Amino acid sequence: MAFEFHLPDIGEGVVEGEIVAWKVKVGDKVKLDQPIVEIMTDKATVEIPSPRAGTISKINYADGQICPVGQILLVIEEEGSSGKTAAPEHSPPPQSQIAANLPAAPVTAAPAARPAAIEVVDASAGRSRALATPSTRRLARQLGVELGRVPATGKRGRVTSDDVRGFASRGAAPAASASATRTAFAPVAIAAIGPEERVPLRGLRKRIADNMTRSTQTASHFTYVEEIDMTELVALRDRARSRAGERGVKLTYLPFIIKAVVSGLKKWPQLNASLDESTQEVVRKKYYHIGIAAQGPQGLAVSVLRDADRRSIFDLAREIDRLGDAVRNGTASRDELTGSTFTISSLGKLGGVMATPIINFPEVGILGVHKIEERPAVRGGQIVARWLMNLSISLDHRLVDGWDGAMFLQDVKALLEDPTTMFMEMV
Questions:
Q1: Closest Cα partner for 276 from 167, 110, 118, 157?
Q2: Fold classification of 2-97 (topology level)
Q3: Cα 111–13–271 angle (5° rounding)?
């Protein structure tokens, strides 16, 4: 019997998925629960198992194509079949069979804490998307409406066709104008003038590209760079490493930087915020979920260290290490890759001198941490060797003034240069 397997509703409001890689081809025999395809949704990359044993007779979507939830993904001829078509399979595979793999950049909604009107940006997905069906997206494009600006009335926060029509009828000219401006340029074909290799832009790389484009076209970026004298913190960390080792903790400088950043965010709440474009309200968050941007095996990922303000230095170090392992192994869950309110990007020993990091939309700030190196400095009229590090912070000028951003980084600088004051502020 021919069994039509429809792409199941994996949950979390997913409406479509991109085919990353087929693990089978037409004519292959498959067993029950055998992995057959990797699909990337707006939430994560999932591995879909076969719901039946039999032979693959038809595959309807190629690598890189988008399959809406509920559409026929493939057809399986069950063993001993008579050629008749079985009832379609709509139920999702067991959760234990779905392995959430490494997602992309940025992403950043705090479930339960953020108002539903704010569009969720998933780091695991690497791009920002309103929840909507393909037909609704098509209608929005036709009307020149940016879906991220449309208040959603559908189930699970989905934007409906009526939402789009209503938004357009109310004269959402700014959104339509901005959208038209961004899509005014026709795609440019790159002519071949020598040997080359062409790699399809799809999967995680495309989601990263989409997310970065969305951020730079929406947020008004500006970057401020400051030099930090880390000499006192270097000495403190060296003294604490033995005690940390006794507790099985790998102590880096990042937990101290996170503590200083959280202290600064409490003093300058406009940096721990997002702009709800649908209501034109600034949402200042009272929770501190710090995103840690790092390179994973499949690309850029932002793991989320939740409630950083409530954690000790050692606890932060443990969680950073655990999340780092999960990202590198591709086992990080969606909750571990979404919900950040402010992001830190650290390149460690490769940190360079400065950068202009791109904001993890819809956040309004991202801090770039550069390498610590011994350099000459003037202290008390004398040239001395000091451990110096640069910090580069990019901010959204729509919500954060240059003076506020500079003062935030000055407060972070003061805590890092005199770490004893950092501990005095701890709860």
A1: 118
A2: OB fold (Dihydrolipoamide Acetyltransferase, E2P) (2.40.50)
A3: 30
Could you tell me which residue, 227 or 333, shows the higher pLDDT? 227
Catalytic status, residue 401: yes
160: confidence class by pLDDT, cuts 50, 70, 90? confident
Tens-place pLDDT, residues 182-220: 444 567 888 889 999 998 887 777 878 888 988 999 999
User: What local confidence, expressed as pLDDT, does residue 109 receive?
Assistant: 37
Tokens representing 395 are 């901010």
Q: Which two tokens stand for residue 168?
A: 């357009």
Q: Which residues pair with 343 in a beta bridge?
A: 291, 366
3-state secondary structure the chain: CEEEEECCCCCCCCCEEEEEEECCCCCCEECCCCEEEEEECCCCEEEEECCCCEEEEEECCCCCCEEECCCEEEEEEECCCCCCEEEEECCCCCHHHCCCCCCCCCCCCCCCCCCCCCCCEECCCCEECCCECHHHHHHHHHHCCCHHHCCCCCHHHCECHHHHHHHHHCCCHHHHHHHHHHCCCCCCCCCCCCCCCCCCCCHHHHHHHHHHHHHHHHCCEEEEEEEEECHHHHHHHHHHHHHHHHCCCCCCCHHHHHHHHHHHHHHCHHHCEEEECCCCEEEECCCCCEEEEEEECCEEEEEEECCHHHCCHHHHHHHHHHHHHHHHHCCCCCCCCCCCCEEEEECHHHCCCCCCCCCCCCCCEEEEECCCEEEEEEECCEEEEEEEEEEEEEEECCCCCHHHHHHHHHHHHHHHHCHHHHHHCCC
The domain made up of 220-424 is a member of CATH 3.40.50.720: no
Query: Domain residue spans in the chain?
Result: 2-97, 220-424
Catalytic residue among 9, 401, 411, 418: 401
> 177 versus 163: which is more confidently predicted?
163
26-32, long-range: CB within 8 Å, 24+ apart, which pairs?
Answer: 26/56, 26/57, 26/58, 26/59, 27/55, 27/56, 28/55, 28/56, 29/54, 29/55, 29/56, 30/54, 30/55, 30/56, 30/76
Concerning whether 276 is annotated as a catalytic residue, the answer is no
pLDDT of residue 401: 96
Residue of 162, 238, 325, 397 marked active site: 397
Do domains 2-97 and 220-424 share one topology? The answer is no
